Amino acid sequence: MAEAAAKRAPEMESGGVAGPESRHLFEGSNWTFDTMGRTYDAIQEIALNDLGLDVYPNQIEIISSEQMLDAYSSIGMPLMYQHWSYGKRFVREAQMYQKGYAGLAYEIVINSNPCISYNMEDSTMAMQALVMAHAAFGHNHFFKNNYLFQQWTDAEGILDYLEFAKRYVAKCEERHSTAAVEEILDAAHALMDHGVFRYRRRPKLNLREQAERERERRQYQERTFNDLWRTLPRNGADMQPEQADVEIEERKTRLKLPEENLLYFLEKNSPVLEPWQRELLHIVRNIGQYFYPQKQTKVMNEGCATFVHLYIMNQLYDKGLLPEGAMLEALHSHSSVIFQPDFNDKRYSGINPYALGLAMMEDIKRICVEPTPEDEEWFPEIAGSGDWRGTLKDAWANYRDESFIQQYLSPNVIRKMKLFVLADDSTDTHFTVTDIHDERGFRNVRRALARSYDLGAIEPDIQIVDVDLRGDRKLRLQHTMRDGVPLSERNRDEVLKHIRRLWGYEVGLVGVEADTDKTSYEVSTEDAADDDD
Amino acid sequence: MAMPHFIDRRLNPKQKSLGNRQRFMRRARAQIKEVVNKSIRERNVSDISNGETISIPTKGIGEPRFHHAPTGGRRDRIFTGNKEFNAGDRIPKPAEGGQGEGGKKATDRGEGEDEFQFVLSREEFLDMFFEDLELPDLVKTSLKEVCSYKPHRAGFASSGSPTNINVLRTMRNSFGRRIALKRPTSGDEDGLTQRILDLEARSDLTPDERLWMAELHKQLEELKCRRRAIPYVDPFDLRYNRFDNHPEPNTNAVMFCLMDVSGSMGEREKDLAKRFFMILHMFLKRRYERIEVVFVRHTHEAQEVDEETFFYSRETGGTVVSSALKEMLEIVHDRYPPGEWNIYTAQASDGDNFSGDAEKCIELLDTALMPLCQYYAYVEILDEREMELFQDPEKGTALWQAYRAVGASWPNFETKRIAGPGDIYPVFRELFAKQAADG
Questions:
Q1: How far apart are CA A503 and CA A497, in angstroms?
Q2: Are B49 and A474 a contacting pair, CB within 8 Å?
């Protein structure tokens, strides 16, 4: 206790009537709500008036490490419904943490209005300052301004909606048994990546209203979803072939096929699902859609937050508001976050989005302020403009990872990171180095890196193309393959079983080469049934 | 902009993930159990009280998604930290499954995730371990004799033993009856007597007063008579606390560890025996609130000792197994009345015995011990070579033959031969395997 008191003494001097010798916001490593508030104000001053950020009001919650573990095993959401997969994540994270293989995340931030961020109680004051700058201003600005988030997510309604979802799932478990709910959620989770509208633009979701209107919508759908089946021809043989073809075309139009949003299609059209099961699909789909922008902006989102915290911490230090020890601690933590091992390093696990994002954003600032002739050639619009704040804010607002890299990855960053591209053809026994960080390679490296962040390329293109209404009601899916890249087979067959569960009838998947229209493979749940039993 | 909102959530309920964890454990039950069973066969007994990091196959707890296979087709891979490569260089692909530079990429996509690793808490581990084991005849005995009776208060009765008199109830009845029958109180009697005494004290009594005094004497006589007729406490008032005997499952167990410590039992044999005792002890610990362990060692004579001495002191002498049985019987009679204690016995020996003693053992077991014991397990520790020789359970030492004979007549008597640590768990499992197996 004596030690704590001793540590607090200088703090009080600088806190009240600031002593002339120290303008520090805090001393030592312990934090209090007082030092937190004071530091927040200083950070906010720089964020709003210097950087000109535009943020949602902040709500900063202090939680224990155990609560942090809880929170991020439920995909970072404070109010997630219960599911075994979150338990699985929890036991794994808990083990990693207990064994010291992995530290806990310092913060979790939620795209909501007000913007909620979690800070851990064990963190030192220096870390609290870093985390506030990173999450409460960096991420917060990005969430509020990036077009994807504006277009796809409803920051106002998400917490209410999660609350609703949690209660709804719990109610279903009570009424229909945990196992019955799990069966649907498992299947829905398997399709979460394919439960978003990728190519078609949808109106912004208003989650709060959705939750409120749930009941009405259900009633309406109960009345209407049977339409499809009421008009189902009894027997294909009774019908003339041409007539049948016309019928199918008509049905396809009515079902809006092909459909890329598998969950949406099943929710609306599955002949076997009960209303509550449809609602569960709807919930999973909404949550998947809510996270869709985050998946597309990992580099930008983290880059933005990291750039903001680094700038703010430097400013605080330059103004003499941060003690030296705190600054060193923050820098140490910062550099481990942006550490990028080389490809042949044991620690290499792909490109670190923090490192790439920060490097690109720092470089944009440099190009605006001190451009080289090379920059003037590559980025004539911004080179030497001096307005790095405006340029960055424009980038943060209007790009996602793929387009951001395509637009802004500079030769300088490629050189610094020593990026190179390997061509991997499965028919070849060797990799070929196609491009490296040199004059000839810059554009290709940039294209390859941008493409590696394109969800449209990363995630397989799978669409529902037909429902065989005349015969066995088999659902037909098509995988449009690019460059002959196949699906992971075991996963594929498992997911098909899940779809079968939701659809109630057999499901077939055909892999078609995009360039040649050649059928590469064909699988069906009918084949898999044999292995199952 | 408004002040930030700081909220202290540290006191919010913890363990929000508990429900999720339980859901996961239920889900992965079958896989976890399989791994646990395997690990029990391999690990030392001393570890068994710890939790365990286990890897289970992802089958059943996988979360499949449509995603691209890590290899196949044509694709570009992009890396950082180029050192000596130039455009056009050819790099051989690492061999299948090799941990080359290219191979690492495979784990990024989650395809390499064949095993799921996590820590099972001690409780969870043991639950899995014991799951389908049951104490032999536990159900049967708990229905029959294992029950002890414990008195529970059950209202009041008008008869009973004097020690159970409920004074409050009794006095309340007595008071009510005295009021109803208008029994004069001792105050009434004292008042009347006082008035008589006052009159008698005076010498100048008028005739009226003399008459009055006679009247008072008469009243006093009546009053006394009435007080005698109406007893202060009538047997009719008596109330007793009533007790019912409720059957209670017996929650105490005593475990007897009997071991031959003569020269023929070496370190190896004792070590095996120890493991056997420990595992039985742990098993009982889960079933009973309270367990006592009694160690009885014997050479040609038997002695109760503490655990340390039991396992580590060296003795010389012959081997008379029946001495241990006698000692145990005495201890049971002295300290562990079978009505209150569930008695378990684990005996380990190398099969040596003084010739002719085997018959005594049979008799002791048949007539005295087995009726008292819930369960009796005997392991005979052999070396590997002997194990080969004694494949046939019919053959063996005199002691073995004798114990086999006892086993034939008592279903709660088990005999097994073990030779190495690897045999212990299977034996243990067999000893306690669900009775369902044999009907």
A1: 10
A2: no
* A249 vs B: CB within 8 A: no
Give domain status of residue A329, yes or no.
no
Reply yes or no on whether the pLDDT at A533 is more than 60: no
Going by C-alpha positions, the residue among A258, A90, A259, A274 that lies closest to residue A180 is A274
Backbone dihedral angles phi then psi of residue B132, each to the nearest 5 degrees: -100, 20
Least CB-CB distance to B80: which of A192, A418, A481? A418
- Same structural domain, A449 and A506: no
What number of CA atoms fall less than 13 Å from residue A401's CA on the CB side?
30
Partner-chain residue, chosen from B7, B28, B69, that has the shortest CB–CB distance to A488: B69
User: Could you tell me if A170 lies within 8 Å of chain B, comparing CB atoms?
Assistant: no
Cα–Cα distance for residue pair A479/A514, rounded to 1 Å: 9
Does any CB of chain B come closer than 8 Å to the CB of residue A35?
no
Predicted-complex ipTM score: 0.80
Which pLDDT does position A360 carry in this prediction? Answer: 97
Q: What is the mean pLDDT of residues B319-344?
A: 87
Judged by CB atoms closer than 8 Å, whether chains meet at A486 and B117 is answered as no
CATH superfamily, with its number, for domain B250-438: von Willebrand factor, type A domain (3.40.50.410)
Task: Chain A: give the shortest CA distance to residue B14, in Å.
Answer: 6
Q: Mean of the pLDDT values across residues A307-335?
A: 94
Side chain identity, residue B132:
D
Rounded to a whole number of angstroms, the distance from the CA of A433 to the nearest CA of chain B is: 5
Which of the listed residues A284, A318, A352 is the one where a domain comes to its end?
A318
Domain that holds residue A508: 457-532
> What does the alpha-carbon distance between residue A384 and residue A386 come to, in Å, rounded to a whole number?
5
Query: Edge-to-edge strand order for the sheet containing A475-481?
Result: A461-467, A475-481, A507-513, A519-524
Cα distances from A477 to residues A259, A474, B131, in angstroms, run: 9, 10, 44
Which residues from chain B sit within 8 angstroms of residue A194, using beta carbons? 66
Question: CB contact, 8 Å: A350 with chain B?
Answer: yes
In terms of domains, do A34 and A140 share one? yes
Confirm or reject contact between A233 and chain B (CB < 8 A). no
Contact residues, chain B, for A448 at CB < 8 Å: 76, 78
- Residue A462 confidence (pLDDT) above 50: yes
The answer to whether the CB atoms of A438 and B5 lie below 8 A apart is: no
A505: domain CATH number? 3.40.1350
**Tokens read off for A403:** 């387009």
Q: Which residues of B touch A422 (CB under 8 A)?
A: 76-79, 91, 102
Evaluate if residue B102 carries a pLDDT over 70: no
A198 contacts chain B (CB < 8 A):
no
Nearest CA in chain B to A450: B78
pTM of the model: 0.66
**Looking at the DSSP assignment, which residues form a beta bridge with residue B119?**
B53
**Cα-flanking dihedrals φ and ψ of residue A305, to 5°?**
-65, -40
Please indicate, yes or no, whether residues A449 and A465 belong to a single structural domain of this protein. no
A175 in a domain, yes or no?
no
- Give B12 to chain A, closest Cα distance, Å: 8
Q: What average pLDDT score do residues A378-398 get?
A: 94
- The pLDDT tens digits for B373-429 are 888 888 888 887 777 777 777 777 888 888 888 888 887 788 888 887 667 666 656
Chain B residues lying within 8 Å of A520, measured CB to CB = none
Could you tell me if A377 and A447 lie in one domain?
A: yes
Question: What SS3 state is found at B121?
Answer: coil
> Taking CB atoms and an 8 Å cutoff, what residues of chain A touch B17?
69-70, 73-74, 86-87, 90
Residues A488 and A461 in one domain: yes
Which of A255, A288, A318 is the last residue before a domain boundary? A318
Q: How close, in Å, is residue A425 to chain B by CA atoms?
A: 4
How many A-B residue pairs are in contact by the CB < 8 A criterion? 280
For residue B59, which of A281, A507, A509, A531 has the smallest C-alpha distance? A531
Q: Is residue A463 part of a domain?
A: yes
Is A229 within a domain? no
